[in-house]
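queue> pop job 88
queue> type: inverse folding (structure -> sequence)
queue> payload:
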């Protein structure tokens, strides 16, 4: 039995490791025991990523005061939800 792997240092590190695991498992060349270990590690990484994304989403909701709007691209192909720049003459003194 191998020692438990350390937790990922960052979200990006977790995604990278998860991608590596998926590639290894897709080849089908891992021995059964190693495949099971990698599967277990992958589920841990997946939960970590989901938790981090959920926390980021919650933080965005707090910062925006729960006023997020669905993404709707405009005719230019960009988000119609992007705030327009305020012209300098409209700024408050």
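queue> result:
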């Amino acid at each position: 039995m191998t020692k438990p792997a350390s937790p990922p240092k960052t979200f990006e590190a977790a995604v990278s490791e998860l991608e590596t695991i998926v590639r290894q498992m897709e080849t089908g060349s891992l021995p059964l025991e190693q495949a099971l270990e990698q599967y277990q590690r992958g589920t841990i990484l997946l939960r970590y990523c989901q938790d981090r994304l959920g926390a980021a989403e919650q933080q965005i909701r707090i910062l925006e005061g729960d006023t997020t709007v669905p993404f709707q691209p405009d005719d230019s192909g960009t988000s119609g939800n992007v705030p327009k720049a305020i012209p300098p003459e409209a700024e408050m003194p």
